[in-house]
Design goal:
With 385 residues, the protein is α/β, with parallel strands linked by helices. The chain has 2 domains: 183 residues, Hypothetical protein af1432 (Orthogonal Bundle), CATH 1.10.3210; 141 residues, P-loop containing nucleotide triphosphate hydrolases (Rossmann fold), CATH 3.40.50.300. Strands 4-5-3-6-7 form a 5-stranded parallel β-sheet, sandwiched between helices. A hairpin with a 2-residue loop joins strand 1 and strand 2. Helix 4 crosses helix 7. The protein is globular, with a radius of gyration of 22 Å.
């Protein structure tokens, strides 16, 4: 790394001390964790904040953690702070047991917001690739324990490896295991220690799985029955470029600079054409946009889809349509620093209200190569994790 990102409170030599009181002062959003109970069978230590403290201390004590670079230690410490951040939002009692279903998935959205906006992480927030590595680790932090229970363990690890580094994931999983009191016999530590060997056997430990080509990867993640080593012939007939980014991120500017003259299906343009505002019923806008997309696809003519496309589900509908016409999919994700996006949104002719912008940010799914033939990140030039 050329630029060191710092997570304040991260333990460092020679003491490797974790100071819970200082962490609560730095990160007041941790306080609700103290009021969130956990299932005593698996967390006899008590509330979530108690568990997080134990995890952070165990992390700091692990030789594998201490051997990491300073940047990697800061990343894993942030994961420790954030991995259960949405347990208070998801915890409920079912059949007399305390459960927190989906806390890791929801935790990604909350973690992304905090890493981008908490002033402790710098005036411009956490650098994009560092932030997304942390989010990936938050999302998959339980995988080294649960992979053997998945219907298709190989598919589970291949998908997760697109989003995070498994060497860091394994170190954190051990700290997460040690930072709890479980009253039942379990093979958790054995599973974690076997996780690297299993991933090496699958072929995705050090790097994402080496698919024969981009089309094979694209179809593998779209088709539950596909095998990753099956070399599919790339029969795509045109390319659809799907823009993705928050309002004010500069998607239209990027299109004008990099794809001048290309056909564009723009939802903003269609709204203006139909005299529909952003708060009106969007069905006519979307229907016309999809019909124009079909016109291009029938002619095997590439085009640019210019919309925010923030949700994986929303992108998936267009991608499925385009794939049905044998189109190659390229996603271009645009994200200047978050403060700049906010400013640019305010300066636009059609401003998205701040409350609506914040809601959109809270639901952002940053695209990955599991969704498309290619993904380009137009982000500030900083070092990659």
């Amino acid at each position: 790394m050329n630029d060191l990102w710092n997570c304040p409170g991260c333990p460092a030599p020679p003491t490797w001390e974790v100071d819970p009181a200082e962490l609560l002062r730095l990160y007041p959003w941790l306080r609700p964790l103290a009021d969130c109970p956990q299932e005593p069978t698996f967390h006899a230590e008590g509330d979530v904040w108690t568990h997080v403290q134990m995890v952070l201390r165990e992390l700091a004590a692990l030789p594998a953690f201490r051997e990491l670079t300073e940047q990697e230690r800061n990343i894993l410490f942030a994961v420790g702070l954030l991995h259960d951040i949405c347990k208070p939002d998801t915890t409920r009692v079912e059949d007399g047991r305390i459960r927190s279903p989906g806390h890791a998935v929801r935790g990604v959205y909350r973690a992304r917001q905090l890493l981008a906006e908490d002033p402790n992480f710098g005036p411009l927030g956490t650098p994009f690739f560092v932030r997304e590595e942390i989010c990936g680790l938050v999302r998959w932090h339980g995988l080294p324990v649960t992979y053997v229970d998945k219907p298709d363990p190989a598919r589970a690890v291949i998908r997760a490896r697109v989003a995070c580094r498994f060497d860091l994931l394994t170190v954190f999983a051990e700290a997460d295991h040690r930072g709890r009191i479980c009253t039942l016999p379990q093979d958790t530590l054995d599973r974690i220690r076997l996780f690297p060997d299993y991933c090496r056997e699958v072929g995705c430990w050090d790097t994402p799985y080496p698919f024969p080509n981009a089309h094979t990867r694209f179809e593998y993640f779209r088709t539950e029955t596909a095998h990753p080593s099956l070399h599919l012939f790339d029969d795509t007939a045109c390319e659809v470029t799907v823009m993705c980014g928050l309002p004010g991120s500069g998607k239209s500017t990027w299109i004008a600079e990099h794809m001048p003259g290309s056909p564009v299906v723009s939802l903003d343009d269609i709204r203006e054409e139909l005299d529909v505002t952003a708060t009106d019923n969007q069905s006519p806008v979307v229907a016309l946009a999809y019909e124009r997309a079909r016109e291009h696809l029938r002619q095997k003519r590439g085009f640019v889809w210019n919309a925010t496309s923030l949700s994986r589900m929303i992108r998936g509908k267009l991608i499925d349509l385009a794939a049905g016409y044998r189109a190659r999919i390229r996603i271009v994700y645009v994200e200047p620093p978050i403060p700049d996006i906010r400013r640019q949104n305010r300066e636009r002719a059609k401003v998205v209200p701040e409350s609506a912008w914040q809601r959109m940010f809270s639901k952002l799914d940053v695209p990955t190569e599991a969704e498309a033939h290619a993904v380009e990140y137009v982000v500030p030039a900083v070092s990659v994790v």
